[in-house]
Amino acid sequence: MKLKEHGLAAETELNDIEPGVPIKIGNVEIEFFRVCHSIPDAMGISIKTPLGKIIHTGDFKIDHTPVDGKPTNFQAMSTVAGEGVLLLCSDSTYSENEGYTPSEFIIEEAFNKVIGEAKGRIIVATFASLISRMQQVIDIAARYDRKVTIAGKSMINNVKMAKKMGYLNIPDDMLIPLDEATKIKDRRIVILATGAQGEPSSALTRIANSDHKHLKIKKGDTIIVSASPIPGNEKAISKTIDNLFRQGADVFYNKNSQVHVHGHASREELKLMISLFKPKYFMPIHGEYRHLVAHARLARRMGVDKDNAFVIEDGDVLFLTNESGEVVGNIGTELVSVKGNKISSH
């Protein structure tokens, strides 16, 4: 969708990837294995090099009852692990959270209660990429004889693509245009919207600021913010929720209702991944620096040698041999801004 949006689809070669099918690139062999996350077809990657095997988990959590029915493939991971793992690069986003991350399935009860009891319009804000969450909302809306409409360009595009590719099951007569949705009774509509992170130009933020072309908050509206704030977005989403309450809406969010579970592994799942792969070297990835430190400490407690767990930052060069590993330098990196056709560095 993004390639098409920016006019790059015609000049870009895309290759279909299937889990368990090796791909040879020079003297490196790559194989994908299925994991669970908040997007469809999330994959971890096994990279077989002459020195040994590198595992990159990607974003993951362990969900035994995922909405799409495609759980983490432990058999494939066990096969990969049985050949020995040189380096494990593992998702650290929720490495400070004790226990396990709940399954996507558990929020259905909260959604059913909120949507079933609402007397007026319902607006559900979530990530535009969270197709399984949209499916849950659509299924419950159908249960209560409500139509569904979409507010937000990225979500409209993703819903079209997900429906076309079979990731989203929604009857043709159930999905209606936004301008048509404003003409039917409030108790008959659910609005799926972007803006769960308080993004300035998103649908929910513009609604909260009374700046949306089609939607204004009415007393009796029910808003579900189905997301946890990403670090750095807390102030923006808090302001959005305050503005919605101020205008008379009833708002359900992660602090007052179980309307969201995140898509990243908590500490017990991270332990399981380390125990399964038993890597010689460990490198935590994806998270703030404190998350990387917490994850590295966890790996050391799980048996990784204290000198073999590396907390590195963007640009650091990690050099590994079968005997030892060390950070040997840094490739200069900097922030890059893209505005239209202009690219600038900071």
Topology:
Blueprint: H1 2-5, E1 23-25, E2 28-34, E3 43-48, E4 53-56, H2 74-82, E5 87-91, H3 107-117, E6 122-125, H4 131-143, E7 147-151, H5 153-165, H6 178-181, E8 189-193, H7 203-208, E9 222-225, H8 234-246, E10 250-252, H9 267-277, E11 281-285, H10 289-301, E12 316-320, E13 325-330, E14 336-339, E15 342-345
Parallel strand pairs: 4-5, 5-11, 6-8, 6-9, 7-8, 9-10
Antiparallel strand pairs: 1-2, 2-3, 3-4, 12-13, 14-15
Helix pairs in contact: 3-4
Task: Explain what you see.
The chain is of the alpha/beta class. The protein has 2 domains: 2-100 and 263-345, Metallo-beta-lactamase, Chain A (4-Layer Sandwich); 104-252, Rossmann fold (3-Layer(aba) Sandwich), CATH 3.40.50. The chain is built from 10 helices and 15 strands. It has helices at 2-5, 74-82, 107-117, 131-143, 153-165, 178-181, 203-208, 234-246, 267-277, 289-301; strands at residues 23-25, 28-34, 43-48, 53-56, 87-91, 122-125, 147-151, 189-193, 222-225, 250-252, 281-285, 316-320, 325-330, 336-339, 342-345. The strands form 4 sheets. It has a 6-stranded mixed β-sheet. A 5-stranded parallel β-sheet has the order 7-8-6-9-10, with helices on both faces. Strand 9, helix 8 (234-246) and strand 10 (250-252) form a beta-alpha-beta unit. The model has no long low-confidence stretch (mean pLDDT 91).
